[in-house]
Design brief:
The complex is a heterodimer of chains A (448) and B (309). Chain A is mainly alpha-helical and 448 residues long. Chain A is built from 18 helices and no strands. Classes of the chains: A mainly alpha (448), B alpha+beta (309).
Amino acid sequence: MSGHNIKFNKEKLDKIATDVLKPLGFNGAFKVWMSFLTVALLACLYAYSIQYREGLIVTGMRDMVSWGMYIANFVFFVATALVGMLISGVIGLLGYKWIKPITRIAEIIAVAFAAVAGLVIVSDMGRPERLLHVFMYGRVQSPILWDVTVVTTYLVISTLLYLLPLIPDLAIARGRGHEMPKWQAKIYELLSFNWTHHPKQYQLLFKSTRLLFILVIPTAFAIHTVTSWLLAVNSRSGWDSTIFGPYFLTGAFVTGMAAVVIAVFFFRNSYKLREYLDDSLFDKMGKLLEFVCVVYFYFNLNEFVVPAYKMKEFDAVHIHELFVGKHAIMFWFSQICGLIIPMIILLWKPFRKPVPLFIISLFVIVGAWLKRYIIVIPTMEHPFLPIQNLPNEWIVYSPTVIETMVTIGSIIMGVMIISVLAKLFPVIPIWEMAEEEDQNEDKTTKII
Amino acid sequence: MRRYYTTLILSVCAVFGLSAQSTWSVPQDQKEKLNTIEFTESMEKSGADVFAGKCKVCHGVPGQNNFNALLNPSPGDPAGDKFQKNTDGELFYKISEGRVTMPSFKTALSKDDIWNIIAYVRSFNPTYVQETSEKIETNIPEGTQLAMDISYNTDKDVVEVLLTGTLNDITNPVGGVNIKLMAQRYFGNLQIDEAKSTNKRGIATFSWNKELPGDSLGNIELMASFVDSDIYGPLSSEKKLVIGKPNNNPPLNKGRAMWNTVKKAPLWIIIGYTGAVLIVWIFIFYVLFSLKNIFALGKESISEDEKLI
């Protein structure tokens, strides 16, 4: 791979750079959008300040259901963050070229969601000021510590995977005298690391990113497997499952793919990048989404049909609640609208066109969020030892307004990070797109 | 739904627990236990409150046969024959101790509460006539200071409790008093032998099983107390004797274990965790180092034919 010699198509580079750099900059519309988000975020932060002052009693969580919407939301964030690994790591290493224009978008999502996931966990803490104790007194035997470790590591790797391929682009932008405010120019200068397009620099860059691509795969597997273990190491119906790791991981691919489709659809239209984010790209993304949906469906089949066939006494209660009980609507919505229908209709090409795919992805992502809720809360409601004489509101969990606002706040934060990054730096890797296609297939980065 | 669920769990426990037929035997001395005062209407009333709060879920309202029939063994209607055939002492014992699905209320309710419940339950039984225990006259003169001493008789391999009484500076053995002996265990106490009465020499004798595990030296902490603490007072005596089997099992938190502190975590988990973290971070630092090199390369000049852009 050190034999990977890069060559640019100069005209192509010219055109791409112009197109991709044009929508950048904090223009008026962006400012309006950000002020809207800021105001909404402030309202949510206010809700959090109440929780900080009063404690977790302001949430719907009580002794019996002590993991609520926050944990479900955390799992959702971690899941979505995983897409960076799927796109750049897995699909990239397999040698597929069509992902080039969306690698950076996937990485932005990974960075934003991994960063916010950490905050979401803090919001679930009763005494967040003691966060440091996790590191000071953490027990290496506890999956919680593993989770903290892998989330941080994944965030670092994803950030590097975002920043490294950005370096040549920043240099290109500077070299072309792209107009920008002083502070932004300063950032560009800092982050372009003295980049002169020296071939040796490219060699180093290739080597580093390739290393990261390989590294990000086990890390991402670890992050979501460990997250699943937070639940699966408990002997409770609904969690006590040996396939929880892969079940979560494949679920994460579905969520992440949907998030990428939504983001790509958005940039395609508002950044006027239809030429690069074209219909054939959506067709490919649709196929990938279809593929991960099928795999996830397979795991769902195992996860629910096997216990439902056996109906062991405690599982029976749990399954009953999900299939026909209190959580049935949410369960079937997430399964049918968020997984089965998308999986079926994506088989037809017209549904893989941008607009239908975008709509399908919206359903998938909403279904995915609800699915996390379904995984966390119902199990909590069925402990093995029934706790006697509890007031009803301690047994049945329903999130409070404050809790919901804090959760919405986390989503807003994620969107804000994405918005800022996407206006600050090019969303499509200019230099990679302008790279001259290698005539000799064998020399490309395909590993298989 | 919740009710169905509770029932399901409870009956599962019950099926595994024991068969319904086995009788619930109550120790003789407990059976004969009586309240010292007569039940009053106000006792029945407060008993009714406690019953509604703690017992109704399973036993229903007395006399209405609406107890939870799915439970096995059946809790039964408190106004029914089976229930009422119990002596007051038996009721007191069963409520205090519980059995399988019938919870133990020893710690949840005070003695008075339990007597109140019995008063309430008895109010459904028209044929019930209460017997009260008389204040028992003891042969111990008023003002006597009682003392107990535990010792081990190596000849006979028995534990002896000597009860003495001191009055006007004269100490005499006290006979005819029931004493029980307990050995301290991890979670609660173990009764040794049955309750025994002191003999003429003031000695109550308890047979001893030398196989009972003690601490690492064979120490066993013994406690003697009166069976009828209502009469003789709450006096008890404790003593550590080297009469148990030395127990050299390491404590559960001694070795490396999943449940132990970080320092005593299993090696494989420490190695696995730190190893994985180290490997990944070494590579991350390697990449950061490459960035430095990239920066340095920026100062090198590029020959014309190498120029890419």
